[in-house]
């Protein structure tokens, strides 16, 4: 179906080729997962399949890519539209029309299909993806998961044999991501569509994949069975780490596989005491919020929420998209709207409400890194951003730079913030906000688009912030991250707090929020691979 | 989930109310009328309004337009813009009257009140500020303003009745590229506003004050970079979905069709102007309009032949569309006839003051104008189209994602 023959892709601005001499053959009907670190060339590989590389992006491509016998050299993307469907990371950016039904029909209109065929396919696709009730809705009013399913539907109506998905679930909450992936696996199983999907959170997809393409970053591609490829790489979901720790071969890829083998492991750990819960904080809270109300025209985003943040503690804020997480963070920081309630931050000069302070002083009390950290950055170089941050916070020259160097490997001074990777940009935005030395740090969905490495690094950074005595809130969808990072978990729904407790309490109580390790080890209360390894070592010394 | 969705899809196709009897023709089922029909109807009404200053038929025309809007508009946001046009019309009338009051202008015998006149220098001779206010002068302003307001309200009615975007979709194939650009621009505008708001909010987080050139740069740079990223993503998406698959048209042919269309449209504009303004020579009126239309149609047909794409659920031009558009045309024609039969009644003199009168022909005009309130099919309303889906977990588990989605989307709405 898809053949890469000695493909080398080189962009003008980088000396090293993105892909080097790649040979691949993806047969029909496979679900093929593409993994690799940020910048390793996943998108380049995906976009080469329908000729966007190099027809659209520039650069040079040596070798040949053929899809169903069509050479991308002579077929630009538009001439492959009936064979390859491509869905990008941000579905909203790729929508051409403004209602669901028209968007589904757009591709077929370009292919000049007849009206009865179009009508029939639109109805079929609406049913196939379970979006029939959305047909007249404006695309902008849909939730993230719905948008992503519409975007997939919009390319499916052209009946492509190949579906290319670039991180389809990176912005979605766990349930919405499951919906999207369920739709994708159905396409593979029922319609025999060949799917090529890139994804950072391997744990979500790897169990469905027939094949894993791993890009180590030097331009080569490692190709093979998921279990085999995963055994040798350092980029692995928690289940695989658990399998390695327990010495299972082949490695388990789904919770079901692992659970069937885990009986023995559970027995070995049977009498090991569970990890101690973090001690209840005795220090007075650094920030107290009472009865926070945030309303937007027509909706109540936050409905009377109380929140206490203690110094040195990491709180994870969870809940589906649109449940009021961001609104709460912005309201607490004082920059966002707040129609009711009080916020008190204890600072050097007594307790104050950050909303009453000028913006420059408020950020010295509560620092917030927004969902798109790039919004904070507007200068041409990393150096200029750091200098500006020092000026804004009246900090000694070099403060921000020093913070940045602690957070991440040294970034070149003259690099443009837009050219940084997601992780580096997050680190820069965080350094800018930390320059003001706020005792409370709020992070709004910081791990979007971060690979396992960057996430590990981020975890270390946040831990350091906590040990320095700061109160940290991380709003996120990533249950695995929460399991390793947070002391306390707060779950929001419809603007209210529906669960609030220690990480173990909240995460073990519901299957939707349980990390993979917990699902495998239930009813024993283990959350992370590290805990299990530590307990195994302890059990070993005792036995 | 699919079974459920299928059942749901089928349920939608069967009418919710059983058809009301033997005479259920396709034209009477709730549906959206072709936007072109509404625009033709509204233009007809506007043309009729332009042919008279008599406040009685003007007021009746406004009432007719309002009645049709109320009975036949959908529930989309633009459908409720009609009130804005009514307010705008009232403002226009008030402005006209106030202008006559301030600048005096027309003299009359029935002086209502004396305002002190502001003496102006000699070079401003002919302009008078304030001074005596005569009933004739105010009435003249009122008539004039009412005519303009009525024309505007008629166009507002078209705007409320027809989805502006569907009108764009109905453009001839030759103008497809332009209409795509307009649609994209329309959807990008709110995104830009969103970006600006988001970046402005983020700037507060850095403690930046919101003024001056520096602030502009701090906002404009991320917003523009964002817009650029987004437009690249959109271009890539359009390309990979097949946009522009048949772009190879010889340059000569493109110039010919473009020239024809352009010349035709100029002809249509001149012709319309000639038709509306009674003072221009008559050959610039209807004949020019017809010649222009013909040229434009030929050009578009030629260009349209080269475009190979189809259209999903196009608005079809059916008998009801013809009837509604015909009502508009008939309104204009009957008004023109009324004008030639009895010009004095259509332009009631303000000096001497006379009561405006209605003639049977004027009543006929209004009757024809209001007919679409009953002739046009009722609009489809969202309540009818999207009944709440019944959510039964298909596999017996407690996971209820569709429910999450619905509640979420409601929250966002």
From TrEMBL, chain A:
Q: How does it sit in the membrane?
A: Peripheral membrane protein
The ranges of region (Disordered) come to 267-286, 334-358
Instruction: Determine the domain of life of the protein's source.
Output: Bacteria
Q: Where in the numbering of this chain does the ABC transporter domain appear?
A: 2-242, 287-519
Presence of keyword Membrane:
yes
Primary localisation category:
membrane
What are the GO MF terms of this UniProt record?
A: ATP binding; ATP hydrolysis activity; ATPase-coupled transmembrane transporter activity
Q: Where is the composition biased (Pro residues)?
A: 272-284
Keywords recorded for this protein, A-Z:
ATP-binding, Cell membrane, Membrane, Nucleotide-binding, Repeat, Translocase, Transport
Recorded hits in Gene3D superfamilies, A to Z, give: P-loop containing nucleotide triphosphate hydrolases
Pfam name, any one: ABC_tran
**What's one GO-annotated cellular component?**
ATP-binding cassette (ABC) transporter complex
Q: Where in the cell is it found?
A: Cell membrane
Q: What InterPro entries would the database entry show?
A: AAA+_ATPase, ABC_transporter-like_ATP-bd, ABC_transporter-like_CS, ABC_transpr_CbiO/EcfA_su, ECF_ABC_transporter_ATP-bd, P-loop_NTPase
Belongs to which family? Belongs to the ABC transporter superfamily.
- What does the function comment of this entry state? Probably part of an ABC transporter complex. Responsible for energy coupling to the transport system.
- Designated name of the protein: ATP-binding cassette domain-containing protein
Q: Which organism is it from?
A: Verrucosispora sioxanthis
From TrEMBL, chain B:
GO terms for CC? Answer: plasma membrane
Please provide the record's keywords in A-Z order.
Membrane, Transmembrane, Transmembrane helix
> Topology in the membrane?
Multi-pass membrane protein
Primary localization class, coarse? membrane
Q: What is one Pfam family matched by this protein?
A: CbiQ
Q: Which PANTHER family match?
A: COBALT TRANSPORT PROTEIN (PTHR33514:SF15), PROTEIN ABCI12, CHLOROPLASTIC (PTHR33514)
Kindly provide the name given to this protein in its UniProt entry. Energy-coupling factor transporter transmembrane protein EcfT
Which species expresses this protein natively?
Answer: Verrucosispora sioxanthis
């Amino acid at each position: 179906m898809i053949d890469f023959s000695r493909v080398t892709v080189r962009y003008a601005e980088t000396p090293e080729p993105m892909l080097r001499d790649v040979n691949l053959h993806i047969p029909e009907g496979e679900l093929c997962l593409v993994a690799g670190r940020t910048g390793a060339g996943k998108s380049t590989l995906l976009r080469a399949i329908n000729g966007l590389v190099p027809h659209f992006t520039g650069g040079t491509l040596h070798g040949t890519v053929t899809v169903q016998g069509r050479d991308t050299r002579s077929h630009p993307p538009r001439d492959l539209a009936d064979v390859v469907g491509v869905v990008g990371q941000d579905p909203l950016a790729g929508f051409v029309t403004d209602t669901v039904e028209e968007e589904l029909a757009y591709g077929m209109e370009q292919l000049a299909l007849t009206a009865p065929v179009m009508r029939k396919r639109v109805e079929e696709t609406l049913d196939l993806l379970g979006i029939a009730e959305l047909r007249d809705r404006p695309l902008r009013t849909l939730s993230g998961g719905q948008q992503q399913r519409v975007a997939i539907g919009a390319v499916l109506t052209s009946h492509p044999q190949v579906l290319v998905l670039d991180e389809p679930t990176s912005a979605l909450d766990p349930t919405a991501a499951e919906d999207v992936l369920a739709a994708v696996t159905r396409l593979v199983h029922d319609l025999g569509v060949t799917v090529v999907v890139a994804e950072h959170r391997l744990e979500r997809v790897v169990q469905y994949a027939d094949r894993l393409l791993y890009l180590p970053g030097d331009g080569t591609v490692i190709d093979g069975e998921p279990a085999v490829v995963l055994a040798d790489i350092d980029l692995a979901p928690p289940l695989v780490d658990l399998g390695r720790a327990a010495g299972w071969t082949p490695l388990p890829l789904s919770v079901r596989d692992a659970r069937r083998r885990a009986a023995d492991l559970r027995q070995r750990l049977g009498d090991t005491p569970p990890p101690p819960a973090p001690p209840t904080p005795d220090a007075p809270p650094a920030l107290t919020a009472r009865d926070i109300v945030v309303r937007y025209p027509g909706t109540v985003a936050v409905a009377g929420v109380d929140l206490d943040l203690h110094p040195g503690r990491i709180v994870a804020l969870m809940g589906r998209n649109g449940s009021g997480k961001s609104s709460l963070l912005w309201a607490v920081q004082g920059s966002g709207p707040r129609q009711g309630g009080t916020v008190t931050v204890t600072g050097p000069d007594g307790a104050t409400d950050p909303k009453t302070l000028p913006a420059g002083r408020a950020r010295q009390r509560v620092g917030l890194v927004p969902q798109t950290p790039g919004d904070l950055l507007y200068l041409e170089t990393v150096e200029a951003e750091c200098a500006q941050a020092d000026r804004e916070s009246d900090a000694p020259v070099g403060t921000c730079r020093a913070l940045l160097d602690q957070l991440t490997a040294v970034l070149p001074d003259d690099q443009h913030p837009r050219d940084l990777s997601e992780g580096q940009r997050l680190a820069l935005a965080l350094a800018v906000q930390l320059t003001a030395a706020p005792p409370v740090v709020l992070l709004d969905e910081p791990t979007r688009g971060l690979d396992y490495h960057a996430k590990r690094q981020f975890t270390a950074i946040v831990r350091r912030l906590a040990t320095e005595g700061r109160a940290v809130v991380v709003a996120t969808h990533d249950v695995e991250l929460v399991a390793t990072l947070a002391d306390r978990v707060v779950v929001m729904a419809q603007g209210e707090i529906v669960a609030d407790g220690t990480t173990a309490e909240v995460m073990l109580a519901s299957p939707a929020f349980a990390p993979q390790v917990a699902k495998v080890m239930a009813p024993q209360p283990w959350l992370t691979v590290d805990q299990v390894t530590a307990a195994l070592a302890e059990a070993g010394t005792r036995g | 989930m699919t079974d459920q969705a299928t059942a749901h899809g089928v349920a939608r196709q069967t009418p919710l109310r059983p058809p009301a009897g033997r005479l259920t023709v396709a034209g009477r089922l709730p549906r959206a009328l072709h936007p072109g029909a509404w625009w033709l109807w509204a233009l007809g009404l506007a043309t009729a309004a332009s042919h008279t200053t008599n406040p009685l038929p003007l007021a009746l025309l406004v009432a007719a337009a309002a009645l049709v809007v109320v009975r036949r508009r959908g529930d989309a946001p633009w459908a409720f813009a009609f009130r804005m046009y009514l307010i705008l019309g009232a403002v226009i009338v008030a402005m006209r009257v106030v202008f006559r009051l301030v600048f005096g202008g027309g003299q009359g015998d029935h002086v209502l009140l004396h305002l002190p006149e502001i003496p102006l220098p000699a070079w401003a001779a002919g302009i008078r500020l304030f001074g005596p206010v005569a009933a004739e002068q105010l009435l003249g302003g009122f008539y004039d303003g009412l005519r303009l307001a009525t024309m505007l309200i008629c166009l507002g009615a078209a705007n409320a009745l027809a989805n502006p975007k569907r009108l764009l979709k109905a453009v001839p194939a030759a103008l497809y590229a332009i209409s795509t650009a307009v649609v994209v621009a329309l959807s990008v505008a709110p995104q830009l506003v969103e970006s600006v708001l988001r970046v402005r909010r983020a700037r507060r987080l850095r403690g930046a004050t919101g003024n001056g050139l520096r602030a502009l740069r701090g906002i404009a740079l991320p917003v523009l970079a964002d817009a650029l990223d987004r437009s690249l993503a959109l271009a890539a998406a359009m390309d990979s979905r097949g946009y522009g698959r048949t772009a190879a048209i010889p340059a000569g042919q493109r110039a010919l069709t473009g020239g024809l269309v352009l010349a035709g449209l100029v002809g249509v504009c001149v012709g319309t102007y000639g038709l509306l303004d009674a003072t221009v020579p008559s050959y610039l009126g209807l004949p020019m309009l017809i010649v222009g239309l013909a040229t434009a149609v030929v050009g578009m047909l030629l260009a349209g032949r080269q475009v190979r794409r189809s259209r999903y659920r196009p608005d079809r031009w059916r008998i009801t569309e013809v009837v509604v558009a015909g009502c508009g045309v008939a309104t204009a024609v009957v008004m023109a006839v009324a004008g030639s039969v009895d010009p004095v009644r259509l332009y009631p003199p303000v000096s001497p003051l006379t009561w405006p009168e209605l003639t049977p022909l004027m009543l006929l005009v209004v009757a024809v104008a209001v007919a679409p309130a009953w002739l046009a099919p009722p609009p489809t309303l969202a309540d009818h189209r999207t009944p709440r889906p019944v959510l039964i977990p298909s596999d017996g588990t407690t996971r209820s994602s569709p429910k999450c989605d619905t509640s979420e989307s409601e929250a966002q709405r």
